[in-house]
Amino acid sequence: MNKGAFAEIRADVAAARDRDPAAQGVSTFEILTSWAGVQALLAHRVSHALRRAGVPLLPRTIAYLTRSITGVEIHPAAEIGSRFFIDHGSGVVIGETAKIGDCVTLYQGVTLGGTGFQRGKRHPTVGNNVTIGSGAKLLGPIAVGDGAKIGANTVVVEDVPPGATVVGNPGHPVRVEGRKLEGPDADWIHLPDPIADAIKALSGRIAELEARLAEVDGGEAAAAEKRESAEIAPRTGRSSAGG
Asked: pLDDT tens, 7-25?
C-alpha cells in the first residue's frame, strides 16, 4: 500500500471524527472496525481502483460483499472525492455514474439513483461541501452545487444551485430564516416548510377578502360574528398525553 493510499485512509477517518459526535475520542482502529460508512468507503476505493485497472469480476464482488456487511451499496464505477463521510450508512445507494466532490456528508437512507433505462450519465453529480439528510433521494443526471444542503426525505429531480437548501417532495430551494448554516450541521428542525408558508399566506388572503366583502355588503359585524363562531374552541379536559 503506497503513501497516497495511507493519506486517503487518514483523510476518511478524520472526516468521520470531525463530523460524527460519536467518534470523538475514539481510536482510529475502532473507527475502521466499527463505522460501517467508513468501511464501505474504503472498500469502494479498492473496488474502484481495481475496476479502473481493468480487473474483471472482483470489483463487483467487493461491492456485493460490502453491501451485505455494511448495508451501503456503492457501484465500483462511482467517483468519490476526498473526506467523504457516510453517517450510520444503512440503506445508502450510490449509482454507477454518480460523481461526488470533496468533503461531502451523507446520512442513512440516501439514494443517488437513476430515473429510467437510459444509458450514459444517469446519476447525480454532487459538488463540494454538500450535506444530504436522511432518506433523501436524488434522481437522474442532476447537478448539486457546492455548499448545498438537502433536507431529510427530500426528493430532488432538478439541479440545485450552489449554497441552496432544498426541502420537500419534489424538492424546493428555500432559505433558512434567521440562520446562517455552516458545515454539515444536520439541523433539519429549523428548515422552513414551503407548504405551511403557502397555506398561511392563503389563509391571510382569505381573511382580507372576507373583510373587504363585509365592507361592501355593509355587514361587517355579522361577518365578524360568523368568523368567531367558526373558530375551533380550545380543547379542555385531560390531555391525551396524560396528566
From this structure: 888 898 999 999 998 888 8
